[in-house]
Structures are given as C-alpha cells and as structure tokens.
Design a protein that fits this description.
- By secondary structure, this protein is of the alpha+beta class.
- 26% of the residues lie in helices and 32% in strands.
- Strands 1-2-3-4-5-6-8-7 form an eight-stranded mixed sheet, with helices on both faces.
C-alpha cells in the first residue's frame, strides 16, 4: 500500500478516556515553532536520551522544511493547536534493514499517563503494517523502564540488552535495549504498491 493511502485517514480524532479532543496528524512544515516548543518542554534529564539536539532551532527547522514522510513519519497528537506528543516511524528505503521500521515516541510531560504514547505507537505500527514492513523495532536506554513496559504491553519483545553500550548527551554510559515486533501482513495489502 502506498504512503498516501496509509495516511488518507489523517487528520483524525483520537478518543482517550480523559475525553480531551486530541487530533492526530503527520508533521507539516508550518509546525516548526510548535515542534520546537514541544521539545523545549521536555525536562533536561530526559533530553539526554534523545539522539538529536532538539533544543537547536536549526535541527527542528531542517526536520520541518525537509519533510520526507517515506523515510521519517512523525505522527503528532495535537490539543488546542499545541503539539503534545510525537510518535515517529523511521524507515530505511534500501539496504538490509529496508523491511524493518523503527518507532520512537515522546509525550509532553503534562500529558503523560493518559494513554497517548500507547495510542500513537499503535497508530504508527498500523501504518508500518499497511506499508508492508515486516518488523518494527524500538530502541531504549536502560532506565527507561516505563517506556519499555508500555512497548511490551503492545507486543514488543526484548531482542537485546547491551550493558553500558551507549552514552547520553553528557557522555554517561547506559545500557542499550532493543525491542521488536513482527508484523503480520494482511493479504489484502500484500503486493500492493
């Protein structure tokens, strides 16, 4: 299935238990300032776990002005015009991992505990399935136990844990954790381009 077909349902409403009117949609070029503000709201200790320097406006500018949803698909949860969560599907369009997507998720601190991360990851996994990916994986730094538990609830299984393998932005060593989920391809979508 094509990306355009997979994204045809967006923007769409997200119904969670708290009753807030969340809207889910892909990142747009006009989101630059709101996306930067979203990352600035993440506490410093948590930003150490993010692979990119998201406090640098140039990084966010590049992401928003050079959007390639086929390679990196940020799916945003919006509330009252603010970005409050982001789940991204990362793909390699060629090479030996072209059949595997990588999922990352981040929720604004004020909106945690509402099921946003779980709902967004489920959306991204469904998109990956429709795109014909065979597996999705998620990477963590040891200590992110709540996130690891949430991904496990969605069916992700531990693949590897490497002690003191990665370093955060302050050069402190942490365990590297990789989890994966096999995707069953619906025959209806198999072979469709």
């Amino acid at each position: 299935m094509s990306l355009e077909v997979a994204l045809a349902d967006y923007p769409k409403d997200l119904d969670l238990k708290d009753g807030c009117p969340y809207v889910v949609r892909p990142l747009e070029s006009t989101d630059e300032m709101a996306f930067h503000e979203f990352f600035l709201a993440v506490p410093n200790p948590e930003r150490m776990f993010i692979k990119h320097r998201v406090t640098d406006p140039a990084v966010i500018h590049d992401w928003c002005q050079n959007i390639d949803l086929g390679r990196n698909l940020p799916l945003l949860a919006m509330l009252d015009g603010r970005i409050i969560a982001d789940a991204t599907l990362h793909q390699q369009l060629g090479g030996w991992k072209r059949h595997i997507g990588r999922v990352s998720v981040l929720v604004h601190p004020q909106y945690r505990g509402r099921g946003l991360a779980k709902a967004l990851v489920s959306e991204v996994v469904e998109i990956a399935r429709h795109l014909g990916l065979e597996k999705v994986e998620a990477e963590f730094i040891g200590g992110q136990e709540a996130a690891i538990k949430m991904f496990a609830m969605l069916g992700f299984a531990p693949l590897v844990r490497l002690p003191d393998y990665v370093k955060d932005m302050q050069a402190i060593s942490h365990d590297y954790v990789l989890m994966g989920l096999g995707l069953e391809t619906d025959e209806e979508y198999a072979g469709m381009e």
